[in-house]
Amino acid sequence: VQLVESGGASVQAGGSLRLSCLASRSTVSISRMAWFRQAPGKEREAVAGIESDGKVSYSDSVKGRFTTSQDNAKNTLYLQMNSLKPEDTGTYYCVADMSDDRRYWGQGTQVTVS
Question: What is the pLDDT of residues 72-107, one digit of tens each?
Fold first, then answer.
């Protein structure tokens, strides 16, 4: 599975961005998709995830501000980010978990909040 993220940009605190992740195959065949991020000098952390049954989960740091959704017709995963804070700065990665436990990563898209 190839994953291509887009939508990263530089924004001011309080602003919004929507990230997209286009998968090279039907997202219906993917067990779980998720967003991770990595800030400079920090470990990569999970931000949001969505199961094949539609169940979503968020890290405490983004709960109430970020929303993830999936459009199976477009093979695309989204991350709507509102009320952005400087601590949201980092590279955001899309992840696909398959039923055989293989995990695929996108190349990342940069989000900078100042």
Answer: 999 999 999 999 999 999 999 999 999 889 999 999
| E strand or H helix that includes residue 92 | strand 90-97
Q: What is the CB-side half-sphere exposure of residue 82 using CA atoms within 13 A?
A: 6
* Residue 4 near residue 62 (C-beta atoms within 8 A): no
CA distance 51 to 30: 9
Give, as one character, the DSSP assignment of residue 43.
-
Token pair of 99 as six digits: 């039923």
Residue 32: both structure tokens together: 């779980």
* DSSP tag of 42: S
